[in-house]
TrEMBL record:
Gene3D superfamilies recorded: P-loop containing nucleotide triphosphate hydrolases
Keyword ATP-binding: yes
Highest taxon of the lineage: Bacteria
Pfam families according to UniProt: ABC_tran
Entry GO MF terms: ATP binding
Residues in ABC transporter domain copies: 2-227
Identification of the protein by name: ATP-binding cassette domain-containing protein
Matches recorded under InterPro entries: AAA+_ATPase, ABC_transporter-like_ATP-bd, P-loop_NTPase
Keyword hit for Lyase: no
Family per similarity comment: Belongs to the ABC transporter superfamily.
Gly residues: compositionally biased ranges: 319-329
Length: 329
């Protein structure tokens, strides 16, 4: 487990990480989200002892990073995939890390195979593509077979096969009971990968919740139903719109979008009225939409316009508007 207690970082007069208190628990993948400059990398660097907190503490399994005797055996991390001496081969890079941590060289060859770099292992790391550098970074994180993994943008530069590979890798590690903490701006991928989310904006905690609750709280229930018979469709719409808080949109092909009711509720009502349905399902908000709603007021660097002046609300509450349709999990 990773524990942050009042973790705070100030660079000059800029408060970059603001009083973060949370636990990143084992046995699940925790996604770390936030707009550019929100303080994610700085938080990860403080967990890994690469930056000193201005205030507060970051602990790994109850200890500060600096107190870990064999750090790579306690926590594996990839923060900057390109931070490798360009003239050194990937294998030599890993061997140096392994030696410093009492890890046998055969483990280096093992992790190089695991990340698919077996053949490129003896080439200078400076000749690696971004995706290959990422794979080498992940190999370094896996080297000590640690119970805690911290990965900053691990899918950056990876091809679709590599993205799926990372997803499987981190999910398998979490299923083994390890702690996985990873950041990504790829929301669709995060939706498939993470069980739990920590969201920050301008250094402050905006949410610390399960993926399911994050998505559920982002939008009211809504369902989609296809009713082939026009008269039955009209009857169902009448019954639905007679209820408070329910809105129905009918598309050209006769599909109903029912806001304010779950698929189960729409199915029950249709059954009760003797209405035949061809398609019925819940409409889920996408992580991207839920995230955009939550962080809208915490974005510092806005595309095509001035940045918002306000920060996110201090108590973690937020007005979300739902609505966008997503692919669910
Ligand atoms: N060494 C430093 N000195 C001064 N400011 C810094 C330093 N490192 C980071 N910052 C600032 O701290 C803020 C947070 O940066 P950080 O890299 O932690 O954000 P991030 O959430 O990881 O962003 P991104 O998603 O763009 O990677 C930024 O405004 C950045 O400019």
């Amino acid at each position: 487990m990773i524990s942050l207690r009042g973790l705070t970082k100030r660079y000059g007069d800029k408060l970059v990480v603001d009083d973060l208190t949370l636990d990143v628990r084992s046995g699940r993948v925790t996604g770390f989200l936030g707009p550019n400059g929100a303080g994610k990398s700085t938080t990860m660097r403080m967990i890994l002892g690469l930056d000193h907190p201005t205030r507060g503490r970051a602990l790994i399994a109850g200890r500060p990073y600096a107190d870990l005797r064999r750090p790579l055996r306690a926590v594996g991390a990839m923060l900057d995939a390109r931070a490798v001496h360009p003239a050194r081969s990937g294998r030599a890079h890993l061997i140096a890390q392994a030696r410093a941590n009492g890890i046998p060289v055969r483990r280096v060859d093992e992790v190089l195979e695991t990340v698919g770099l077996g053949e490129a292992a003896r080439r200078p790391a400076g000749t690696y593509s971004l995706g290959m550098s990422g794979r080498l970074g992940v190999a370094g994180a896996l080297l000590g077979d640690p119970p805690v993994l911290i990965l900053d943008e691990p899918v950056n530069g990876l091809d679709p096969d590599g993205v799926r590979w990372i997803r499987r890798l981190v999910r398998d590690r979490a299923a083994e009971g390890r702690t996985v903490f990873l950041s990504s701006h790829l929301m669709s991928e995060m939706q498939l990968t993470a069980d739990h989310l920590v969201v920050i904006g301008r250094g402050r905690l905006l949410d610390d919740t399960s993926m399911a609750d994050f998505l559920a709280s982002a939008s009211p229930a809504s369902a989609r139903a296809s009713v082939p018979d026009p008269e039955e469709r009209a009857a169902l719409v009448r019954r639905l719109t007679a209820c408070d808080g329910v809105g129905v949109e009918t598309s050209a092909d006769g599909t109903l979008l029912v806001e304010g009711r779950t698929a189960a509720e729409v199915g029950d009502l249709a059954h009760h009225c003797g209405v035949r349905l061809h398609g019925l399902g819940d409409v889920r908000v996408s992580l991207e939409q839920a995230y955009m709603d939550l962080t809208a007021r915490s974005v510092e660097y806005v595309t095509g316009g001035p940045a918002a002046e306000t920060t996110g609300p201090p108590d973690g509450t937020h007005g979300r508007s739902g609505g966008a349709e997503g692919d669910g999990r």
